[in-house]
User: Fold these one by one.
Assistant:
Number 1:
Amino acid sequence: MERDIARVLITPERIRERVRELGARIAADLDALGEDAAEHVTIIPVMTGAIVFVSDLIRELPVKLRIEIIGVSSYPGKSMESKGVALKSELPRELAGRHLIVIDDILDSGQTLDVLTTLIRERGPASLRTCVLLRKPGKAKVDVRVDYVGFDIPDEFVVGYGLDYDGLYRNYPAIGVLKESAI
Ligand code: IMP
Ligand code: MG
């Protein structure tokens, strides 16, 4: 695995530090919603890319919360650009009246979060926020609002910390760029 990585963009230490900061901000914002809200927080990780990020992030949130996953596929197989968004599972049922935070690994074209937030909003949540670990600035084709962003990165295809190429490298602990020979 390691030998397929050309360059590390973000080290595990920087990720850890940033996830801690994001957690503190999100926790403060949830706190500001008042005591009532505390019973109704649901985190919605977009599978599978958000799996590592969300597992670290939720442990930085010292509040009661539920987790409801959503499965989405936009980069089937070896493709490196979005082929449109396909929902791989039904939306969770109990979203009405909840304070929701949709968590994804990366905002690229913005289609994934755009489609998801539009569908989720129809369910009548009390509030809806979005959080991504990474964002490629200037790439978004649609105007989608993201409330919490870990890092802005250059427009390169990255793997690690949940992000994959052809299903691989999700367990690589840093964010890195693949060698040409691995693609
Ligand atoms: P969007 O719909 O174009 O914003 O793309 C978001 C989804 O595409 C993310 O959930 C990722 O799964 C995937 N993606 C986008 N850029 C990358 C990348 O550089 N590496 C791996 N996956 C990516
Ligand atoms: Mg994804």
Number 2:
Amino acid sequence: MGILKVARIGHPAIRRGARALTDEELRSDALQRLIDDMVDTMKEYEGVGLAAPQVHLELRLAVIEVPAGDGREGVPLTVLVNPELERVGKEIVDGWEGCLSIPDLRGITPRAKRVRVKALDRELKPLTIETAGFFARVLQHECDHLDGRVYMDRMRDLSSLTYLQELERYGPSDDE
Ligand code: NI
């Protein structure tokens, strides 16, 4: 079990973007260890997703796992190697996001309602996910990290930004 150090905004790794893994990297034991460590790190910090640039690596790799609860549907552990994301349809939905690289803050972020992601899984089998709702949101958030973007870049209006503690104490602002 390896907990990795998570880069916060301001660290160049967050803005650098990422490159596809090479064939040699795909077949390496190091990739399997890295995936295990990223999963451990995501769970340790109670994130629902983690992308490689957040652990200082310029690689197109992300892990996602959403525990069910709070009226939210869970997403089983999903490993995305070299993912490519496309929007499906034009519908945009607002929802709360946070990020392990921007600790303690939450903000309302517009995202495509439905997306399709093509990637390899950790066994290097091709994977296609088409989904809507919170899973689609997390997929967009993590794929953005691979292009050096964070959720705040996508916010239309920064007035919803709140610390998590205040959000829990005072609830969402009226404009949600
Ligand atoms: Ni994030």
Number 3:
Amino acid sequence: MKTLYYKVRAQGVKLLLRLLPRNQSVVYAGRGSSLDLCRQAPLLGYKKVLLVTDRFLDGSGLLDGIKETLHNNRVEFAVYDGVKPDPEFEQVEEGEALLRSEGCDAVFGVGGGSVLDAAKMIALLHRNPGDLAFFDGIQKAKHPGLPLFAIPTTAGTGSETTPASVITDSKTHRKIAVADGKLVPHYVALDAELTRTMPRHITAATGMDALTHAVESFLSKASTPTTREMAAGAARTILAHLPRAWRDGNDMEAREAMLTASFHAGVAFGRTSVGYAHAIAHQLGRVCGTPHGEANAMVLPEVLAAYGESVHGVLADLARRTGLGDDDESSAARALINSIIELRDGMGMPSRPESLKKNDIPGMVKAAEAEAGDIYPVPRYLSRQEIQSLFEGLVQV
Ligand code: NAD
């Protein structure tokens, strides 16, 4: 009965994903493009912008070129550097209050997915004042947000292009997923120079996040030939370049390829949504504090295996498009799953969270089942027992 309800709901979500009115981004790409974007700001009429970032990045000097270029081009700026990983309402509210008191006319988000998600919500909240919990769900905001510039410093979330933001209610600690076409940034710079400083563990986790977006988008029931092409291209690039970027952070060809692939995976999943790997990974983030990309890497191969034969055809298609052989369907599907495991293990990533307790599992199963059922057009609905087995397989032995 529940599966039937989810299937009907998925049709509605599919339609919404297709019809969602969204901002069109202007994208600058290539090394130095973040500075080109800063030079554009005064030509577009902006006089004072809010730079949203986190304390580590601001202190590391990564934003110095951006600040200098804004200054040289007579654009004033105020800095909000209070964003924490997995941002909370409090930080969005603080950032928006600073924006108001400083009289800024645009928002520049410079950082990883956490910073970009916070920047997106600051821009939206400014033009739609009220309780942030109101935005939970699809297309809730009435007015477009303040003009938004997004400059990613990780290659993983694709937040610089998605109509989504994930923020945590500071009081209830519940993560809310805001899906609104008005969240798509107006201007984007894909400047791989800013990702060069990522340490290995962040390169690995964010890269696996991008791969999960690509794979789950490819499998989504809402996918189209265009999104499948984009997702497969991203997966192919990530499988080839993530090990290189991880081994040598100064391999700029690999860094650039990863940033582009992460963006394309973001465009694809922004149109198709994701699947059970995300529904389960979000619970690991919430209960065990596992970083988002690491959590996705832990569960993606297991989720693909759990879907079983019903997805072998589509996985084999993806395997062939990524150059992983043209065996029979089941062998090709398995080859893809094995290559994901090899990639994860080869980068020394954990395959289980440290602190998952058996007692936590029932609540996590319920939440993952509801998340996937409510908003993800998954290729096959997993039973509660199947979801529980996935969580049980993640408990340290
Ligand atoms: P993050 O933004 O949380 O950053 C992780 C750490 O990396 C931080 O300490 C940060 O300071 C550091 N860092 C960032 N760039 C760096 C660089 N160039 N050099 C050195 N250190 C750097 O990590 P993330 O994985 O990019 O983002 C995760 C967040 O994104 C989660 O909150 C997740 O829910 C969200 N997310 C959003 C979307 C979306 O579409 N909106 C999609 C996926 C994930």
Number 4:
Amino acid sequence: MNALKQAIQESAKKYHKEFISVRNHLHSHPELSYQEFETSEFIQQQLKQFGIPFEVKATTGVVGLIKGKNPDKRIIALRADIDALPIKEANDVPYKSLKDGLMHACGHDVHTTCLLGAAKILNELKNEWEGTVKLIFQPGEEKNPGGASLLIKEGVLENPTPDAIFGLHVHPQLEVGRYSFRPGQVMASADEIYITIKGKGGHAAAPQLTADTILIASNLVVALQQIISRNNDPLSPSVLSITSFQGGFTTNVIPSEVKLMGTFRAVDEKWRFRAHDLIRELSTSLVNGMGAELDLHIDVGYPSVFNNTELNAVTRKLAEELVGTENVETTEMRMGAEDFGFYTQHIPGCFFRLGTGNVSKGITSGVHTPNFNIDEKAIENGIAMMAWFGATADFNSAKKH
Ligand code: NI
């Protein structure tokens, strides 16, 4: 295992420059969710060049397979998301986005690069490790319904079914060279709420002849806040935010319609769907009780990300073996969402964070900002870690989710 570790580290170092150029290419050619045509083509070209067989799924997804010795012994999936965001890049770098208004501001260019690098190394070393590695280059992480759900529908977790799946995410708040893991719930589910309140509008001086949709909507915004504080287990994080309130156009007219939008987040899947019922019941009774009609739609988004406990214990040890205990930490839970949660509903998963920040170089901008960037050393680090998990992670004990 020591020889394998050394071989992976040396290869990651040797190919660092090559994969910096890969990342620069991806970074300057960002594409929106489900439109990653050039990106998909580029990934396919790379895999062809490495001699790795692959299939195209969900239009722009690419799924490769590398067989080591005893290919049935263990099957590990490594996943990278490939889509970019509608953000105008503010960085002045030679590899700046060439597409106006589009940017790899969530580091999916880095995720894709790390997986391509790991693929090249795992393929070159395939006589040195046992099992099969499935490479999942996934479209549409940033937008419902989530590329993960489409790939799963197209059978990405079958033939063969992975014992476990790994995904990494860049983390600018973590210094380059560091990694963070967390067993159990690590990210929240995210559902979108759309509410329309319809009533009889009319003259503002004669409210008795109307159903005041502004007043009703105001009451509803306040009332919805008690759902979490009075119904949810206080030890289980959950957030309900009404983020848009639209209605009315002048001072003397009560409008006949008010629209609300918001987001609902949770980490407990049972509570999540109970909360949907509570939101529906409360909204219906309050709005009807105040004389108006309700149109409510909850767009069910990504499930929470659950990191299998045994798998994460094994994984953390492996990470410590590769980079030293002092560089591995426990990550905090976040109420952000990730469609990686779809995979962890089916098989044990480990979603971990890759340190990409560097305070002394001023690399601190958060993801989804126009100044987001990484310390390039993170590319070598991410490649080595993904290759290491692909070659060594063995979780027969963790198979039961
Ligand atoms: Ni992301």
